[in-house]
Design goal:
single chain, 212 residues, alpha/beta, Rossmann fold, nine-stranded mixed sheet, two-stranded parallel sheet, 7 helices, 24% strand, binds NADP nicotinamide-adenine-dinucleotide phosphate
């Protein structure tokens, strides 16, 4: 498949691109950095800024892309322009391009405002509001075959290969396990039009996804 990874230079994006290339996909990664991120014949790169106009974003996206990952984010610095409006413009651009599959990395409880008073989330309220409405847009206002993966905290620690999906705790994740889960979602059509939360747990990633 030819796959667009929006946010290929990020911590999750880097692991995700490596896994997609290992799975023999052709990957187009986006970054505003000049240097080529991966030295692989199946990798090409796009200098994409999602704060640009939606039509400009759309022009940069190839028609023959089979699936899109959104793993970009502002890191709290520009949540409105990047995590909300930037994300929504990519959803609109991808849809208008005629591409169907869109896999969004989001955050745990993004769509469950009843959980937002907990201490870890309260400090990130602006970010949560932005992810909430971007996710809502994808679910309610697009006709894309979406999957939203709502990860708990991302940690730079060794992969475990095991997760808990849709339990009641926010939890923590090895970044590599989040990338593995995102890569597995692409192979699992039962994840289409589903939203699920994840953190490291006791179930092998493929088994957990198969149960969705
Ligand atoms: N941190 C957590 O605990 C946590 C938990 C759950 C979910 N998440 C979500 O996971 C996402 C990815 O996390 P991460 O740690 O991998 O992020 P990261 O390392 O900060 O990477 C951010 C990515 O976003 C891209 N980006 C930023 N602004 C952009 C813009 N204006 N236009 C285009 N691309 C832009 C960056 O590309 P450039 O190379 O162009 O800068 C980079 O590839 C977060 O943004 C967040 O929404 C995070």
């Amino acid at each position: 498949m030819k796959i667009l990874v929006i946010g290929a230079s990020g911590r999750v994006g880097t692991d995700l691109v490596k896994q997609l290339l290992a799975d023999n996909h052709q990957v187009v990664g986006t970054t505003r950095q000049e240097k080529k991120l991966f030295d692989d014949k199946n990798y090409s790169q796009l200098d994409l800024d999602i704060t640009a106009h939606k039509d400009a974003i759309q022009k940069q996206i190839d028609k023959d892309i089979d699936a899109v990952y959104f793993v970009a984010g502002s890191g709290g610095k520009d949540v409105l322009e990047v995590d909300l409006h930037g994300a929504v413009k990519t959803i609109q651009a991808v849809q208008d391009k005629g591409i169907k599959r869109y896999i969004m990395l989001s955050t745990v409880f993004s769509l469950d405002t009843s959980k937002w008073d907990s201490p870890g989330i309260g400090d990130l309220k602006q970010y949560y509001i932005c992810k909430h409405y971007a996710d809502q847009w994808l679910v309610n206002d697009s006709n894309l075959d979406y999957t939203i993966v709502q990860a708990g905290a991302l940690k730079e620690r060794a992969a475990t290969g095991k997760v808990a999906i849709n339990d009641d705790n926010a939890g923590e994740n090895s970044i590599e396990d989040v990338a593995t889960t995102l890569a597995a979602v692409l192979k699992a059509d039962n994840t289409i039009n589903k939203v699920f939360s994840m953190h490291n747990g006791e179930t092998a990633i493929n088994d957990a996804i198969a149960k969705l």
